[in-house]
Amino acid sequence: MFESLTEKLEAALKSVSGQGRITELNIAGTMREIRRALLEADVNYQVAREFTERVKEKALGTKVLSSVSPGQQLVKIVYDELVRLLGSEQVDINLSPTPPTVILVAGLQGSGKTTFCAKLALYFKKKGRAPLLAAADVYRPAAVEQLKTLAASINVPVYSIEENGQVVQDAVRVAREAVQEARRTARDIVIIDTAGRLHIDEAMMQEVEQIKEAVRPHEILFVVDSMTGQDAVNTAKAFNERLDFDGVVLTKLDGDTRGGAALSIRSVVNKPIKFASTGEKLDALTPFYPDRMAQRILGMGDVISLVERAQEQYDARQAEKLRRKLRSADFNLEDFYEQLQRIKKMGSLRELIGMIPGLGRYVKDLDVDDDAFKHIEAMILSMTPEERRNPDIIDASRRRRIARGSGMEVSDVNQLLRQFKEMRKMMKSMSKLMGKGRAVDLRQ
Ligand code: GDP
């Protein structure tokens, strides 16, 4: 995400790092470079110009602090301005005090609208809510099916109207009845997936307006594909003029997007970006935090999101259990397998590495292979439970069997077992050290 912008901004900011102080003269080139970097990332021209103007004004007006270099000061100013541009604060969905909360989701076809509806349902489900999806994208028969399939995978009901095996083409009716259905079945959130077209057209706009009128949603979200750059901004403007939506959802931020849409939309339509979608899997959705995004853009990583992802996978009890296991060096291949499953649930390796400060920009050249996990898993799964608990009993003939069973070479099995042994040895010596540490603490 945004690698090229990150690289260019870093280069631009480096050029002032050696300067003793910031002057109109030595900052001019840097500002030009920053502006060019933004324009190349497809940031709206006006937005890019205002951005550099503000940075320059602030930089020249800032007192030179002796403790930090002018370069560092400038990085801070650019960071602050990026956060401001992205909206400053994270903004939540408006929830109705009396259920159900009705959320209307609009956007062009292919923007990732249907996928997002399912993701949002899962997001709320994880928070203990009971969502209902409404299939108001009634023109593409496949759309209703797609929503049903996605919903089934997360165990969320879908409201749709079919007569004689045909989808009834009345989106307003689907939306209205879905809200009634939610009341009847005690569902506290209704998420309405509407029809999109490839381009903005009058019929589509009218229909969404009619749905809005009929169900008076508490929240209208506009979904846009961040890969479409300036088009995303124009579409957002058009939808906002008609619908006056409450928030934007940026999809496909995992792709090769240049970042222009993310950086321009907020200030052009003056509506907050509420969610970022970063993959096809249904858990690839995160609330949008302007500060974290700015950190990523400047190559500072996003440790907070990384920690939060980890926290989702480990509750306090599980973390304690794992810690005890590691300390007693009683950690076996079964535990190892379980940890792999948790890490996998946190996201793709590429995405996780991208959140580590300083590593983001290397990821694009890195051959990070999520399949590496698959091979290890296959080998572990080819072992008997007894072997997983006690890998020392695996002899040569069993190694051959495991290799055959998992489609790997005997040398791969050997390597896995060797590495696992090393890891355990390291844990043993670490736990000894930790034990010593505790003893010292007690004496003090
Ligand atoms: P709709 O026509 O707006 O309802 O769009 P869909 O939900 O059908 O999504 C269009 C395509 O984009 C599908 O192939 C999705 O799997 C894919 N997609 C949706 N969101 C994301 C995302 O955040 N990242 C990636 N890489 N693909 C996505």
UniProtKB/TrEMBL annotation:
Keywords: Cytoplasm, GTP-binding, Hydrolase, Nucleotide-binding, Ribonucleoprotein, RNA-binding, Signal recognition particle
Residues engaged in binding GTP: 107-114, 193-197, 251-254
Recorded GO MF terms: 7S RNA binding; GTP binding; GTPase activity
Record domain SRP54-type proteins GTP-binding: where: 272-285
Record's GO cellular component terms: signal recognition particle
InterPro entries in UniProt: AAA+_ATPase, P-loop_NTPase, Signal_recog_part_SRP54_M_sf, Signal_recog_particl_SRP54_hlx, Signal_recog_particle_SRP54_M, SRP, SRP54, SRP54_GTPase_dom
GO biological process, one term: SRP-dependent cotranslational protein targeting to membrane
EC numbers on record: 3.6.5.4
Catalytic activity: GTP + H2O = GDP + phosphate + H(+)
Biological function: Involved in targeting and insertion of nascent membrane proteins into the cytoplasmic membrane. Binds to the hydrophobic signal sequence of the ribosome-nascent chain (RNC) as it emerges from the ribosomes. The SRP-RNC complex is then targeted to the cytoplasmic membrane where it interacts with the SRP receptor FtsY.
Subunit organization: Part of the signal recognition particle protein translocation system, which is composed of SRP and FtsY.
Protein name (database record): Signal recognition particle protein
Organism encoding this protein: Rhodothermus marinus (strain ATCC 43812 / DSM 4252 / R-10)
